[in-house]
Every structure is written in C-alpha cells, then in structure tokens.
Amino acid sequence: MDLSSSIICILLHSLVFVSLIYSNNSLKIKKPFVNQTFRSEDELYKLNESIAIRLKQLNKPAVKTILSPDGDIIDCVLTHQQPAFDHPLLKGQKPLGPPDIPKGNNQMDNFNESAQLWSLSGESCPDGTIPIRRITEQDLLRASSDSRFGRKFSIMGSNSHQHAIQYVQDGEFYGAQASLNVWNPHGETPDLFSLAQMWVMAGTFEKDLNTIEVGWQIDQRFYGDRRTRFFIFWTADAYRNSCYNLQCPGFVQTNKDIAFGAAISPISTYNGKQFKISLSVWKDVKTGNWWLRYGYKNVGYWPSSLFTNLKDVASKVHWGGEILNEQYPKASSIQMGSGHFPEEGWQKAAYFNNINVLNSKRDYWVQPTNLQNYADSPNCYNVKGGVSRNWGTFFYYGGPGRNKNCL
C-alpha cells in the first residue's frame, strides 16, 4: 500500500479508532486521537509498517488466490503450512488421515444443503491445500486492539450474551450432531452479533471451561459486514485465550472445500424455501482427537492435546441460538434465528433437527435423553422442542428481541 492510501485510511478511522503502535510483534492501544486528524509522514509510515508486519504473521503464503463474489479473498495454503502447526504442541506434525465415521441415527442428507459463496463460481483450491479467508487491514482496524482480534466479545459482569437453547449435562458425551437451517437475522445496532451453534463442553464456566463451538454467525465487528458465515471456535481456558476460525493455531484442517468465516449461500426465507447445514463433532475412537464433519465432508480436527477437561470426554452439550446485547439490561432489537418465535413453526421459525449424541463406544449416533430447554429472556427469544419420526429430536428457537413483552 502506498503513502496516499495510508493517509486516506487514517483519515477515515481517526475519529473512531484508537491509535495503534507496534511493540513486541503486537499492536497495542495508545491514547485516543485528540486533534490528530493529520499526522506526520513518519507516524503514518510506522503505523502502516506495523499493520503490514501483523498481516504477514496472520496470513500464510498462498499457492492460489480466489476472489469471492462478496469481496472476500480466499488463499489456498499448503496443508503443512496452515496456522495449526504454529502451535507449540503441533510443530513438525502433519495432518492425520480420515477417522472412522460413526454410524446410526444421523439422518444426514444433502436436501437443501447450503454451500459457501466463494465456491459457487466453480473455483476451488488444489489438492494438498486448504482455503483460508484472508485477514485484511480493515479487519485489524475494526478491533479495539490486536489482543482482541478474532476473540469472542463480552461485557464483563453482565448477562450481555443471551441464549435460547436445548442442552444435556452431567453425563459423558463423545460427540454431538444436528442439522440447522440458516438465516440472516437483523438488528438496529452498529455491531450486530447473532448466531446458531453447537457447544461441546467440559469444565466450569469462568474457571476452567473447555469448549468446541461450531455453527453459523453474523459478527459485524469481526467480519465487517452482516453476511451469515460458517465458523468454529474453541477455548481451553474459559475464553481467556481463544479465537474464531483459524485465528489461533490449533484446529488442523484437512478439507480443501470449506473455508471458515466464509459466507453461506443460499439462506432460508420467511414462508419460503429452507436451507440448512448439517454438522457433527465427535471424539475419534483411535486417536482421541475431536473431528468436525460438514454434511458428508470431514473438515478437520482439534487435537486432544489442546485441551484439559475435553481431553477425555465432554460433560455437557448445548444446541441453539445466541445474541450479544450491548445495551443489557435493556432489551435488544437484534433478531435470533429467523427473528420469529418458535410457535410459528416450519418455514417461519429457525430450527435444529436430527439432534444426536455419540454412544459410549463412539461408533453409533443416538437420540439424547433428558434434554432440557433454557432461555435467558423467553419474552425476547424462546425455545420449543419435540420428537418426530422424520425429524428425530428437534426444536424451534429464536425471536425478534425487543417487543411489547420484551422491553
């Protein structure tokens, strides 16, 4: 990027972003801008240089680059050069071969399965590579600091994250799966955050929680837009050091067709056609690693060595929706799911179906028992479940947020 481009970038962001300086290979927070609309060429050069260094750290060399219709840049990176192998525990390793696939009541099919926008043009990454969504200068500038980039946002001491979920707990769970239809929820907020996902967990919240999370999300602060995107997330220390997608090294990707953080297309429409994604997370009986499957595609795995409490088995599993309400305790206008309550049902409310857990032998999917419903604010977002012959265990969830009964 030349100097004139740098000046334009600084002018655009000077009123809303803190000044960043590079120190010890990391961008740090300085004092906010005060009458510093114009900065010296030396300051601009240093800032531009620090961002360039950080982007080089975050983005791996590509053997092929694909431009997505939504403007995303997808880099095809050699599998042995992916971020996972920057982790101290994984250095020098190579991706493992495919795992044994559990059998049983999974009922996974390709009916109205959503794809990823970047791949709809027919472009693909070559064998021996994986697709990685490129991190840009604008992505870094949206973050309050480099240490917060790619991490889950929370407001300490509040109930800002609100949920509508089904869950099982106090057991031994070796995997979870479900199909969930895909929506694009809205909200009157500058930084929209709304998602649907599975949580596979062990440990104690706010202390030593280990969790694997996978689903679809809108996170305007992270991605810079309001597109619905496929994501993963994991933590081994109760969210203190953890990241979305591949921002923190750890997850080993083996699939060349799925890009984390890429936009999903098509999505469901109210009273219209429904589109879904089918996800499975399970502990491989041979290696003990936690594998991720998207439809019929193995995507990759979290090595068991990354975890403490999830090293052996999960103690609870959640399925459902979540929003971030930065105005809590005031009600939010952010939609969860389709933005409609569970009672509206098919083609109107968001759903999870074919909900299963893995048996103790880790070879067969079964319907969970003792499922419970939970909603932080049922007048804003709720959940309602059941069991049917065609859908297995299922539930509808979500809501509009602020309404006459939710203030």
Automatic annotation (TrEMBL):
Top-rank taxon: Eukaryota
Record-annotated membrane-spanning stretches: none
InterPro entries xref list: Glutamic_endopeptidase, Neprosin, Neprosin_propep
Coiled coil region boundaries: none
Domain Neprosin PEP catalytic: 155-407
Name this polypeptide is given: Neprosin PEP catalytic domain-containing protein
